[in-house]
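Q: Entry one of two.
A:
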Amino acid sequence: MHTSAVAAGLLLVAWLGALGGCAGQAKLPLEAGIGPNPTLPPPQKSLIPKLNIAPAKGWPAGQTPSAAQGLQVRAFANGLDHPRWLYVLPNGDVLVAETNAPPRPEDGKGIKGKVMKAVMKRAGSAAPSANRITLLRDADHDGVAETRSVLLQHLNSPFGMALVGRTLYVANTDAVVQFPYRDGDTEIRTNGTKVADLPAGAINHHWTKNLIASPDGSHLYVTVGSNSNVAENGIAAEERRAAILDINPRSGEVAVFASGLRNPNGLAWQPQSQMLWTAVNERDELGSDLVPDYMTSVTKGAFYGWPYSYYGQHVDDRVKPQRPDLVATAVAPDYALGPHTASLGLAFYTGSLLPRHYSGGAFVGQHGSWNREPLSGYRVIFVPFAAGKPNGAAEEILTGFVNKDGDAYGRPVGVVVDKAGALLVADDVGNTIWRVTPAT
């Protein structure tokens, strides 16, 4: 890019950043937006959202996140290329989606769009996608992957993964594809077969598509985020978006399982209730205190508000025309995770390695805010559960991803429990998979 163009771009970011400041700092502590009954203050509207970025720096040599008391953390694997999502195979091998956004020529046009692209680049989210799934193996069980191989490559911004029998399903940004898999495979050379198309296209605003199989393997549930913040690209652009889709892998038939979920990512089966749960990123541009991201159980046919309302039936009057008929049916989420925390990863603990306190509860990877003052997220938290429902305050599990100067060493995304019962965390800025175990 020409030097003058770079300078103009930086001036534009600074100017719009000042306008974004009109949205103001948070007036409530972050904890007010966490729990089953979060505080929802009046909206603070602004032309430009608050811009407060933790620039991506990566980890200094020898430094790690800080683990909660009684726990310790070390690198399971490093030197990866933007690792976003994780999946553990029955034999203990760990799959990592090394991925980033695909080309999206129609997303973020205009001045505001250019600013948002600059923001994402500074936050570490603009590199070309590696488009592969890497297999990590810890054959000697010492907590460090000593071998890695490319299981699949030449994918299209892959994200979610699920193994059913001998079939490995992968959610690319534009389709669910399937591959044959045999226990112990370290490379799959067979071309994938498309199971079903997913909403994508030239906007593809929220590009990540996660998936999970039903317990019997007969259905796949796939997350698809919205194509906008609050339907500013038109409702027609939101078909089968802001939703969890139900796909029959045998026929390829696709139906909407639940809707009104602005940007669902994490999917997990709660071990006591056997209910499907999801972690959802809510909307922007209503101030630093709104709207809390959340996790919630998901009921077939339920509507969760987006874009017409948030956190149940709190109307967002920016959306025109309104749909009071839909708002009247909007279901309030089960548990708020804090405004703008970008809560993505979700995993229920079913292992026995960690202390019994964690049994049945939820680990959540919070990727971190770019539009809140002060910053929120940039950590992994734990929410205790009892009888299938959240039961207590959120607890910090991993912190230290942002230094005292406001730079991001890392940003946690996907979380899973490995075969031994340790917690694995994908860090897409630190290019590392972290492993959390009891302290020794």
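Q: Entry two of two.
A:
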Amino acid sequence: MPNTLYLPELREMLAENDEAGLREFCTALHHPARTADFMEGLAADEAWDVLRHAEIPLRAEIFGFLDERKQVEILQAGDRAEIAQLIGEMPPDDRVDLLNRVDSEIVAELMPLIPAEERRDIQRLSAFPEHTAGAVMTTEFARLSEDLTVGQALQEISRQTEELETIYYLYVVDDADHLRGLVSARQLVSAMGKPNTRIGDLMQRDLVTVRVTDDQEEVAQKVARFDLLAIPVVDAEHRLVGIITHDDVLDVMAAEAAEDAYRIAAVAPLEKDYLATRLLVLTWKRGIWLTILFFGAFMTAFALDGYQAVTETIPWLVLFIPLVISTGGNSGNQSATLIITALSTGDVSLKDWWHVVHRELLVGVILGSFLGAIGYLLAVVMAPDWRSAFVIPLALVLVVTWGTLSGSLLPLLFERLGLDPAYMSNPFVATMTDTVGILIYMSVAQALLF
């Protein structure tokens, strides 16, 4: 919810063109995120009129905390020269992401106005495929030579600081930018008492790195696993081309979680915010999967039609069809969700498939037996005799076991094929489990009652 505390005052200052008041507002809250928070209720043109009263570096910082839709609106409506100046001040990865959301015609107008060095950087980062490490990295990082002393390194870092996004880690490279090692800012400060110590004697050499072509989800997993504040990105020749900081990793994890949530619900991931997505696009992304699931559900009806003689002869079996197939579908959904989550966090890999099968087989038998016992008590009431009622518990054991096995193995199969396991979403698992569940249920009924 927008923070409306300053909105009347802001609009009054804008109406009166109170430059001193607007400049004070941009600096008074001490953190750009809080300033952006108090501007949420403003229209895009009003927000830009406020930002124009901040110094350009601060303007870029505040702008970076505005919501994406407002950023795009400002970019599309603002003065091209001023917008180009703003883009030049933004972090490299952020400005590339922003330009990717703007109409290509406007980008073509802005690019010639952006300073040459920043323009080349944008073009270089834009060349990397989406969702790779190269597409989310920043090219602003601290470089040091291993031949520098601690005293010289401190002077060099003080010179570079104004242009850097972070100085948690200081990367040691040779003349060709090959990554040689790393010195943390803490190490450097701790060594101030020995100013003649070489950086090469301080640096860590065994580094965790990623390639520019690595998937961003793998990058996030590495950063989380090794508890890093940033991770270096290297090319095929081990040249340092950028770094990915922890805040960018958080953005990646949020984006990946959102995509997985969409796929688990059988919705194609949205490229824009829900409200910014056009109605026809939203309908298509939902409709295509609903159509596939529709035909999958038809297979269930087709399977049931093959046992029409059984259901007509023993009508009480029909009453338990929803119970049996929904229990199987729910057990499959649980297994699919557990395995998809475990794969995304790295807790499970393809080499663990046999352990997964063993565990899910046991879980399926245990859960099926427990639910089967409850189902038998219900079936005794409706079945003609206690022997006939055994159809229900036996079917439940088999259907639940099938659900746990299929729900766990299908995501692993997708992972093996190089596809996102989240595509094997709960609706797909439920549809497949329903069809096979009908076949199991009716086969058990035929075997026991005919």
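A: Comment on entry two: The chain has a mean pLDDT of 87. Residues 353-382 form the longest helix (30 residues).
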